[in-house]
Amino acid sequence: MANSKDSITHIDQFLQLQNDLDLLKFITCGSVDDGKSTLIGRLLFEAKCIFDDQVSSLKNESAAYGTQGTDIDYALLVDGLAAEREQGITIDVAYRFFNTDKRKFIVADTPGHEQYTRNMVTGASTTDLAVILIDARKGVLEQSKRHAFICSLLGIKHVLLAINKMDLVDYQQTSFNTIEQDFSQFAKQLNFNKVSAIPVSALKGDNIIDRSSHMTWFKGPTLMAFLETVPTAMGLEDHAFRMPVQWVNRPHLDFRGFSGTVAAGIIEVGEEIRILPSGSIAKVQDIILFDQHLPKARAGQAVTITLDKEVDASRGDMLVAAQAPCEVSDQFEVELVWMDQEQGYTGRSYGLQIGTNWVKAQITDIKHTINVNTLEHNAARALNLNDIAVVTLSLDQAVAFETFANCQPLGSLILVDRFSNATVAAGMIKHALRRSSNVHKQALTVSKIDRNQSNGHRGKVLWLTGLSGSGKSTIANILEQKLHQQGIRTYLLDGDNVRHGLNKDLGFTEADRVENIRRITEVAHLMVDAGLVVITAFISPFKAERNAARARFEDGEFVEIFVNTPLDVAEQRDPKGLYKKARRGEIPNFTGINSPYEAPENADFEVDTSVLSAERIAQQLLQHVISDLELS
Q: Which of 399, 416, 437 lies at the terminal end of a domain, its last residue?
């Protein structure tokens, strides 16, 4: 019985000891085949953090998939995806947990290929330290610099430069020194506090756990000793209190709490908080964690907070220290990493998530992209996969935020394609645009309803889209005449006409076409607000822009009309001779020939001028829309 009690005591002591160990989160990154997975596998193996059955399985898998002949391939401990094992590369971010007597670790093994840079960004976003591996035979490569720059961008302050495969350069000190100097020279331009370099051979185990007998010239720590003793990043508890509201918790009429994870700081019962962006102030009445009532909550804890009075707050709002609130803005300068195969343009609408807040956003300006080799700033009209850029973002409503440098959880954001829900970019807020706090929406006494009443009908936009020569302008012109005869106040926005004035500065590149439609959307929106029926006749070739245009209007105000005239018919008509010029290569980016047209999938109306005359189509459209214009 005594032995049983002793065992329980020892287990409790062990668990308490483990609980008291601090945690280091680090990332391994670098170019392809630099040995990242092998390094982590060796760390796990040497630290005795894998079980006997895992060792047996590793030996079997090394024989089947390994690259080391009859020896153990330590990379297979980490490369979990079948595609990775077959190709011998890391694709996904692989997270591993291990511990020693001195510290607990979470390591993220990230891809080396440039095409998987977005995965590397994901892995680096929550770590304290970057272990950047460099092949001693190859030196500092472009991808090594890319990863170093991204680590700097994401606020990582300490870098361990692991110069690997020293066994393949005969453990020469000169190879190590050259690479250390080259990297240090590049890193001077980045925001690292310290770069530490260690020569290693992950495959042979040199300087991983034990000192290498082949590199007696190196007097620094082994890699594991460094990881066990490097200072961890300071927590966010010293920051002013911040908690994004994730959920308004109301199980019954007598309880209303605000649930979320404390992003920064400490909050105590009785302290005053401010709700942003509204600015309401209240005192904390209770802090609840499951069935416990806590005197305080700190950064990282998920809690429910109740207040001493009713306030207007919902998901996406921020609870902050009343005397130290954060900023609120709807325009930002942001460092952006583009993660999508499809290009990003100014004027295109995206979903933006910051904290628990979800809003609509547009890139209003691409200030420059950054060359990761030279760190030069380059002009750009569009963002391509893996581009790193400084842009300005405009949101459809103000949000509470912190700069990324000041508070990473509340200064980071993602952009999302609003229709596919794919994440297209990750961003770090540099600062709010100064003018965003000085520009306020003016309340107007005469409303849209008043204007509709004065006009005698509702405002609406009839958006005609289709190929050049499909008959859009002809239909639009006839339709406006018919509406005008019915006493409807109209205006026709035609693609060619607006390019003589409002959009005369735009060409026909993909970026220019996006901006062309954005401007037309805003003009049409103002006209509908004035109570007019606006007819637009534009090719508007991209679904994203047409969907963004629809989203700008209230339900029922936007009618998409797809003039689905076949290409061969439109080309045969060729009223302006444009198709002939495009076929001869005289017109680049001509829709239908050398630039795509993305046909609507769910247009409100679909018509074809090769089947019906423009007159007949206009009459049918009139009959469909006229009743919708009547005031109730």
A: 437
Amino acid sitting at position 240: A
Q: Pseudo-torsion of CA 512, 518, 524, 530, nearest 10°?
A: -130
Task: Answer whether residue 4 is part of any domain.
Answer: no
Please tell me the distance from the alpha carbon of residue 301 to that of residue 312, in angstroms, as a whole number.
23
Is residue 63 classed as helix, strand or coil in its secondary structure?
A: helix
Compute the distance between CA of residue 351 and CA of residue 416 in angstroms, rounded to an integer: 5
| pLDDT one-digit tens code per residue, 347-357 | 888 999 998 99
Task: Give the E-state strand segments of 110-193 in sequence order.
Answer: 129-135, 158-164
CB 117, CB 337: distance < 8 Å: yes
Phi, psi of 245 (to 5 degrees): -80, 120
Instruction: Report H helices in 159-236.
Output: 173-187, 223-229
Q: Domain containing 102: what range? A: 11-229
How is residue 632 annotated by DSSP? -
Helix, strand or coil for residue 108? Answer: strand
- Closest to 471 in 3D by CA, of 616, 586, 354: 616
Residues 281 and 349 in one domain: no
Residue 40 resides in a domain: yes
The active-site residue out of 31, 152, 349, 540 is 540
Say whether 329 is catalytic.
Answer: no
CA 277 to chain centre: 23
The three-class DSSP label of residue 340 is coil
Task: Give the integer Cα–Cα distance in Å for 392 and 408.
Answer: 19
- pTM score, two decimals? 0.69
d(CA 134, CA 114): 15
**What pLDDT shows up at residue 214?**
95
Which helix H or strand E contains 280, and what residues bound it? Answer: strand 280-289
Residue 434's SS3 state is helix
pLDDT digits (tens, 9 = 90+) for 293-342: 999 999 989 999 999 998 888 999 999 999 999 989 999 999 998 988 88
